[in-house]
Amino acid sequence: MHPQFAPQTWPRRQWLAALAASGMAAVWPAWAQQRGRPVRRLISVGGALTEVVYALGAQSLLVATDTTSLYPEAATRTLKVGYLRQLSAEGLLSLQPDALVGAADAGPAVVLEQVRAAGVRVELVPAQHSFEEVLRKVETVGRVTGREAQAAQLAQRLQQEWAQVSRQVAQASRRPRALFILSHNGSPMVAGTDTAAHALLTLAGADNVVTAFAGYRPLTAEAMAAAAPQVIINSTQGIEALGGVAAFWQRPELALTPAFARKALVTMEASHLLGFGPRLPSAVQALHRQMLQVTA
């Protein structure tokens, strides 16, 4: 072995980081991941995962979070490792974490492989846009942080809240025709199927008026009029990016919709609305109530 990689002369974390960067990580034995050791230094990437960390009282383990981790307010004061899809192996490993928990879209994948190869436990939760996804996040963070009992209690409370909200939605006498607009970057797109927004609208008792395509796309004025939404949903950040509520309603493509006549707009903070974290029951309940109110 080359002297510069000699483990007896380097601290373990520095040695593992160098190994990952050298391309030799593929031959490093599996025990290097140290999965059985207690986690003392945790990185969370994904706002919902960070919310769970705080909900379980495990925030003392956090050494950093990503820029989508904005709730609770204390999370905004944590060290940031950048946007969850644009992570850096060097930046992550410099914090000497024992574990990283994150959303499935965290990455790039090659960066997370380097982090794993350096002996860091990496656990990602697949996105299903469902209440079951929330429970999986709670279970994962509880297991990684050694707070299984707290995770079980939180899961039980969330299940009770979800059952109550689901009954309220099921008992509603009508389903508003809703359109979700994503405009965080100032370029509005509407949510089709296979999106968190579509799932949220469905869970909250609305019918998404855009089902001809999956994902997010721009929508023409003609298509907007044909879709005929009774209510429009956006995040507070998205409305701010478009210049505020008054400026939003001045957009010509909205003028021919039923929603325009009533100025039927529902907004919520983005991580609450689309995070699919512990606040999902409250997000669905608030969205359900507000949609019925503005379309009454």
* Content-based structural category: alpha/beta
The overall average pLDDT, rounded, is 89
Shape: globular
At the first level of CATH, the class of the largest domain is Alpha Beta
Termini gap: 74 Å
The percent range for strand residues is 5-15%
Q: Could you give the count of β-strands?
A: 10
| CATH topology title of the largest domain | Rossmann fold
Instruction: Give start-end ranges of low-pLDDT stretches.
Output: 1-13, 15-33
Q: Helical stretch count? A: 13
Q: State Rg.
A: 22 Å
Give the number of domains. Answer: 2
Q: Identify the CATH homologous superfamily of the largest domain.
A: Nitrogenase molybdenum iron protein domain
Describe the largest sheet.
6 strands, mixed
Helical residue percent band = 40-55%
Give me the CATH architecture of the largest domain, please.
Answer: 3-Layer(aba) Sandwich
H/E element order = HEHEHEHEHHEEHEEHEHHHEHH
